[in-house]
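Deviations from the work plan: none for this task. Representative record:
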Amino acid sequence: MAANSQFSMAVHVLAMLAKSGEERIKSESVAGSVNTNAVVIRRLLGQLNQANLVISQTGSSGGTRLARCPKEITLAEIYKAVSCGEVFALHGKSPNQDCPVGKNIEAVLCNLQKEIDKTVGEKLSQYTLQSVLEVIEQGRV
Amino acid sequence: MAANSQFSMAVHVLAMLAKSGEERIKSESVAGSVNTNAVVIRRLLGQLNQANLVISQTGSSGGTRLARCPKEITLAEIYKAVSCGEVFALHGKSPNQDCPVGKNIEAVLCNLQKEIDKTVGEKLSQYTLQSVLEVIEQGRV
DNA sequence: ACATCTGTAACTAAACTTGTTACAGTTATG
DNA sequence: CATAACTGTAACAAGTTTAGTTACAGATGT
């Protein structure tokens, strides 16, 4: 279980909130659908809250709802809110700077990394939470 | 050190092999440039070998060289050869099938995953090992 | 025969994600 | 105002992954 599934979980959670409209949903309910612990959900909601995607209320009859209309939330925003960010990682240790390849490879890979991340972001921004919800409610993909 | 940097390492390694042309390179030499252990390099070369990107020779004066011309090796092939594959992971546990969202979200995310992976592959196939080598040798990015 | 490589198994250490318990702080309600 | 019902968050355990290491079998040139 070491693969990062936060984006998947985030889309799931936000789809539920989108479906519920103005109504506030409890972390326990969401956890039931995602099939995990409520604290895991609250941790995730914390990140989504920081990204201004949801609004939570504490106290009795508290819960969480979307901060914006599902039509205005793109998957790119969700990805950005929860991801560690990079499709692939650069070297852990720095390459040997005395080697002509080692000396320049980092800059090349860093630029490539940015470009790939940008490409992923652009693709994800083609989808909104609304579009995801529509597919889910139609039951066909 | 848990972020997957195999793609970065693979590009580095293959760039070195590309620069050396027909000459066979020892894993020890490559390890010196990447700044890691020779066994790590040999493990990586094993994957690149399975993908028909390199050819290794055992025994004294053995080593590894590219299996093809750098112009014919795209970064997409390299990515495919070493990556675990996915930009984001699906849920670890299955969502609650009794929930209308939980029931359908997996299929939606799975399709999305495939599409993102395809997008990354297409972007990476725009670059060849040759093009990477040219940037490295010019020293500017 | 021997030195020099690759290939690979086995083990360790570090990092990360998830799950879980525990508890402080907030809010609605009788 | 007391209590029940929430969220927010810290702290810790467990499982997984990656990288680094050591060790050694097998291949090959001299």
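The two ends of chain A are 26 Å apart (CA to CA).
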